[in-house]
Structure formats: structure tokens, C-alpha cells
Amino acid sequence: MKTFRLGKNWLYLPLIAMAIFYLIPMYVMLVTGFKSFAEVDLQTMWNLPKGIHFDNYIEAYQHLAPSLRNSFVMVIPSAIISSLLGSLNGFILAKWKFRGADVIFPFILFGMFIPYQSILIPLVQFMRSVGLTGLLGLAIAHIIYGIPITTLTFRNYYASLPQELLEAAKMDGADMLGIYRYILLPISIPSFVVVLIWQFTSAWNDFLFAVVLTGNQDWPITVALNNMAGSQIIQWNVQMAGSLLAALPTLLVYIFLGRYFLRGLLAGSLKG
Amino acid sequence: MFKDKDRYLSVILIMPSILAVLIFIYAFIGWSVRVSLSKWKGLTPDYTFVGLKNYLSLFSDPRFHVDIRNTLIFTGVFVLGSIVLGFLLAVMLDQGLKGEGFFRSLFLFPMAISYIVTGVVWRWLMNPATGSRISGLNLLFSYLHLDFLINKWHTTPTWGMAAIALAAIWQMSGYTMALYLAGLRAIPHELREAAQIDGANEVQIYRHIILPLLAPVTLSALIILGHMSLKVFDLIVAVAGKQLPLDVPAIYMWQTTFDGLFYGRGAAIGILLLVSVAVLIIPYIVYTQKTEVQQ
Q1: Number of CB pairs < 8 Å for A and B?
Q2: Which of the residues A95, A132, B24, B246 has the least number of beta carbons within 10 Å of its own beta carbon?
Q3: Distance from C-alpha of B235 to C-alpha of B237, rounded to nearest angstrom
Q4: Mean of the per-residue pLDDT values for chain B?
Q5: A262 vs B178: CB contact, 8 Å cut-off?
């Protein structure tokens, strides 16, 4: 056993090698962003910057500021609303089963996995016909297509709570809404954090819905960044800086709330 | 039991969500099927029934054949790569080394980033230029005297998709690592100790005890990653734009519908994607719901 223990330190070698693999794109994004326009060159992209410059970030920000704002305006309310709906659904499906609740649940779950190409044409036609284009339509799409995963996460959490908790409250005369409001909501905060992070990240990172439902006035960040990268006029160094700006909000959430992020991730594989 | 008032209230409260799912998922799928059986091509909807014509013309369409080949290459490289890498990372992190949390966070952070950002950055890393204009990873390889690794990345004929899959592995292998790590942590320590007492070495323990116990995790990973690779779209658009050698069904659907206005064909591709995802996912949902009931 002892020799084996000693031998385990060699594992740092592959671990560090893999750490480098994961960090390479971050390195390029950061290093390029801090270079001055004069020293930016594809042939020296691995070199460290000579001093700290903000040229790239400033120019990228000038291009992307409106779409960053669009993303925030659209993502925050849709994350909050779909989390609230998920919590209510989860509560009813786990603790207040009506007849057929267990039949309905798998049908809701399936919606989590469908390729959105299979509903894209009706979605666009429908949203146009009711006049819900732009950011509002996009937010509604994120709320509705977020229902399966938010419902799943909350249902799994509420199902794990002992039934006695509810029975006791019922003895005291609480009705359904009272139980939800005063017993379940207060202890659901961690689940809310998980679901909010998850919804924030997936709506922020979405491209497909955004590109069909918004025009260039209300492009969110993913569409704006992709168009910036596709244009011949904007240099690659500005694209790199723009990529970092686009990734920053979700990265910060991950850095500060990574634990909750991981829980959302595992819930998404139905094993939460 | 519950009061009747509460019973009605619960149904009323969940109704909006159920209706939304019913309309935006199931009714829309039905609507797509109807479009896919129509000859709609152009700005105004035309639901004239043409039977399976759109599907049949796809099956004999060389572009769709390329799409299927590309999807198979992408799925093979991406799923296998993410599972093997994720498993190895999880096993290494499960050894109780110092700094485990740091490495775990590091391997997982790409999950927080959008495919578009990943695609834009990898597009410059996988720059295929050669000679004096060499850059990106190829330049790094030449610094390190690993010239044999220099390649044309996603512009390689036929296997270009494997380069896209590499970027996808970068993004998603942390996810499989997290799945496996959770699985490893759930295996009771007594099992390993008992095997050690019986004289099994580390490799034997992994092969005969841990791997079989992790089979359900592997199944989940296979299905989740497999269904993701059928849907791949953003990443390819960001790395390569829309070009035929890297075409996949999702991009074809996009172009034929919104650029070519051939709604009938676009809907048919969408429905074919749905069917291939459903074949994977429906048994999985049934299986997980059943095991849940047993627990």
C-alpha cells in the first residue's frame, strides 16, 4: 500500500497537462485582449502582451454593448419566471398529485430533449402571427422551453422531502398555498439558486432561438458575437476580446456559484 | 386526505404550464409534421399534401448523405472522447490528491460558456494556414517541435468534423467527469476494501468492480452526449460558418428553411432529427422513471 501511495503523485503530470488543455483557449482570449493594436499579430498570438492595453476590449465593447444589454434584459426575467413556474409545478407533481400526474410528468420531461429544429417553423410562424417578435418573444420561448428542466429539478427536490412535513402543517390547518408559501418556499432557496443559474446560463448561451426570433435591433450577445466573427472588417483580436465579454457573465456565475452549477448539471441528466 | 378545494386549485395552478408544453411542444411537433408533408416552398404557407415526398427526396439527396456521415463522425469522436476523457479525469480526481477541487472546477468551467464563444476562439486556434502564415495550435506545435501534429483541422476533407468534435470535447468532457465523479463517490468504500483484502490489485478493482457499477452512469452519458451531437449546430456555425464539408442536418434545416424558404423540406429534416433523438431518449425516460418508482 505504501509504495502505491507514494506513486500517486505522478498523477499530477497528466492532471496538469489536462489543465493546460482546458486553459489554452482562455489564455489566448486573455492575452490577445490585453495587447495593443500594434502588437497584435496572428504569428505571435502565443506571446505575452508587452504591457496592459485595453484597446481590444474597448472596441469590442463598443460593438457589443447594445446586445449585452439585450441579453441581460431578456435573460433575467425569463430565468426568474421559469424558476417560479418550475417550483410550483414541482410542488404539485411531487406532493399534490392529482390523477394522471405521473403520466403527465414524462411528457413534460421529453420536452427537455427535443431538437428544437422540430418545432422551429411553427414557433416562428406562431410568434409572428401573435406579434411576439423580438426580445419579448425570445424571453417567452425561454420560459416555456425551460419548464421541463425547472419542473424536474424542483419535483426531485420536493419528492425527497418527508411527507410528514406536509401532514404536520395540514394538521395545523394550512391549506395548499399556505404549505407552499410558508413551508416549502423557505427551504427551496438552494434549489432556486441551482435552477436560476441553470436558466440564466442556458438562455444567455442560446443561439438558435435568438437567431430566429430577433432582428438586428434586439440581437442578444451570442448572435451579435457570431456576426462580429463572421465579418471581414473586425479583426480577430477584437473578436477574442468580444468572446471574453460574452463569456464573462456566465463565467462569473460559475466562479462564485460553481457548486450550484454542478447540481443543475447533474439534474439535467435526470439523476438529480 | 386533501380538501377538494386544494385539489382543484392544484390543477388550476399547473394548467398554464401543461397547456404551454402541450402547445409549444406537442402541437408544434404536429404542426411541423403537417408542414413536412406539404409542398410549402416560398414566403406564403402552402399546406397542399404531398405525402412523404419531402422525406423521400432527402433520402436520395447527396447533401443529406454528407450530413449523416458528418453526424456519425462527430458523434463517434465526441461521445467516445468525452466519455474516455471524463472517466480518466474522474478516476484521477478520486484518488484523494491535494488540489482536487481546483482541478475539478478547472475541467468543468467550459460548460458555463456558450458554443458560440467556444467556436469563435477555436476557430482561431484551429487556423489551417501554413508556412509563414502559420498560427494557432499549429504554431504552438511547431514551437514544441511536434511538427507531425500540424494539420488542417476542420478543413481536412472527410475528417474535418473530428476537429469540431475536439472543440466539443473541450467543452463537454467536464460534464462526463462530473457524472463519473458522482458515480464513483456513490460506490461504498467497503467494496474496494473487500476486494483489496481478497488480493485484487488497483487495475482489477476498476475492471471488475468499479466499471460494472458505473455502467448506469456510462449509459446516461452515452444518451445525453449522443442526443446532443445529433443536435449540434451553434458550434459548427461559429467555427466554420455554413459550408458544405461541415454540413449537418441542423444546418441544412436552417439553410433550406430560412434562406431557401423550402419549409416542407426543412420541417422534414426537423422531424427526422426528432425521431432519431426520440429513439434514444424515450427508452431512457421510461427507464429512469421506473428505477425511480422502485427506489
Answers
A1: 263
A2: A132
A3: 6
A4: 92
A5: yes
Contact A225, A70 (CB under 8 A): no
Q: Residue A48 gets which letter from DSSP?
A: P
Phi, psi (5° rounding) for residue B66?
-60, -45
Rounded to whole angstroms, how far apart are CA atoms A16 and B75? 27
Place of cell 433550406: B256
**If you measure CA to CA, which chain A residue comes closest to B231?**
A115
Model pTM score: 0.92
Residue appearing with cell numbers 414557433: A123
- Secondary structure (3-state) at B253: helix
Find the helix packing angle between B160-185 and B115-125, rounded to 10°: 130
Q: What is the pLDDT of residues A176-198, one digit of tens each?
A: 888 899 889 999 999 999 999 99
Three-class DSSP category at B49:
strand
Any chain A CB within 8 A of the CB of B103? yes
Count the residues in chain B: 295
Amino acid at A34: F
| Three cell numbers, residue B192 | 474496494
The partner residue sitting opposite B92, judged by closest CB among A15, A110, A121, is: A15
Using the predicted structure, report yes or no on whether residue A272 has a pLDDT greater than 60.
Answer: no
Residue A163 grid coordinates: 411527507
Query: Cβ of A153: how many Cβ atoms within 10 Å?
Result: 26
Q: What is the pLDDT of residues B235-247, one digit of tens each?
A: 999 998 878 889 9
Minimal-distance CA residue of chain B relative to A83 = B17
Contact A243, A29 (CB under 8 A): yes
Portion 128-167 of A in contact with B at CB < 8 A: 141, 144-145, 147-148, 151
Give the closest-approach CA distance of A213 to chain B in angstroms. 12
